[in-house]
Amino acid sequence: MSTIIPIRTHRELLESREAGHGMPGELFGRQDVFETDVELFFHKLWILVGVTADVPEPGDVHTVDIGKASVIILRDDDENIRAYRNVCRHRGSRIMKQPGKATVGMLVCPYHQWTYDLDGSLRHTQHMGKDFDPGCHSLIPVHVKTVGAHIFVCLADEPPTDFAKLETVMAPRFVPYDLTRTKVAYEMEIIENGNWKLVMENNRECYHCSATHPELVNSFLAEDFGFCPDGQSEDALKAYEDYVERNAATQAAWEKDGWISERFESVDEGVQTNFRTQRLVIAGANESQTIDTKVASTKLFGNLQRRDLGDVHMWGHHSWTHVMSDHAVIAYILPLAPDKTLVRTVWLVHEDAVEGIDYDLKKLTEVWVATTNQDAELVANTHKGTQDPAYRPGPFSQFTEAPLDEFSRWYDARLKEHGV
């Protein structure tokens, strides 16, 4: 006679996680957990959904699906960026049928042709009678903020107020790059066969980088992501000392010249808007995340004159950004299913940069195209393993995977805050 194993609740799964260890496999594979994650971490918190270059001109639209919700991001006639629920106020039809980009004069529902201006107001209907008030049927607005090139939205009625901290910290770091004067040089969407939390765990540690990311390690300094001195050779220890000295000297020189470089973190259990930033030293020429570590675009951002400004790195609970003097790589994820995650990556260059003259597209993209594909394989393999009956969460490396434990604690705290 077989033994029936009771299904643990979401809270029981969270409480079963041993400090310093990974999450139980059910938190990656169960449909009910997935639905709760989408509702809390993607419908109630601020999330990155695009870049200003997605909607460069008035009438440009970028539609993003987030679970069952859909959001229209657009630039209006006054060049303001707005966001609306992609739901007609008549009988609920999607106004934009598919996610992605389009250019429109007005927003027209394909069902009964209710027509909305770019400011969300209902401008045209037929057969609704003289007593119908179009002013009561404008599109439902969505909270939207831009920071540098980043477009954030929040679907909650009352969005987290601590997003102001991210604005205060990041805005001055992005100002010299003038990221609103950029264009999309390349974009890539890939569906990774793993849970969104595994995608983020993979992104938050570089324990795996030296063995799996040969392109990336040309420009990354592995020591930035942790170093355990135990069992290392004298040469390795000396290399680490050299790294510490070089890093400190470069950071000090940047700060002296007015380039904000210090590390800032808002990742503990008490925050809702989870983010971290730091200006990272790039290996070699210290210019860009390319194979030769030199700029891929000779047309630098804004009015920059210096190439050697390292990497202004920012990550949040579902996104990561690398801004260099010549280009930026901005990526965010959207959960599709317990084992499916959409990863969108955008490469930005100066709005006046010309492909083949100012930049070489292969050089610009090859590091992160390769890294993204490699990460997809790592995540898929890990997701499969966490669903194996033999899986038992192992310990994190305290030297290279501490951010994973921080993320797990933050994830737990947000769920507890909402009664899960």
TrEMBL record:
InterPro entries: Rieske_2Fe-2S (IPR017941), Rieske_2Fe-2S_sf (IPR036922), Ring_hydroxy_dOase_asu_C_dom (IPR015879), Rng_hydr_dOase-A (IPR001663). Its cofactor is Fe cation. SUPFAM superfamilies: Bet v1-like (SSF55961), ISP domain (SSF50022). It comes from the Bacteria. PROSITE patterns: RIESKE. Signal peptide: none annotated. Keywords: 2Fe-2S, Iron, Iron-sulfur, Metal-binding, Oxidoreductase. GO terms for molecular function: 2 iron, 2 sulfur cluster binding; iron ion binding; oxidoreductase activity. Residues 48-153 form the Rieske domain. Belongs to the bacterial ring-hydroxylating dioxygenase alpha subunit family. This is (Fe-S)-binding protein. It comes from Caballeronia humi.
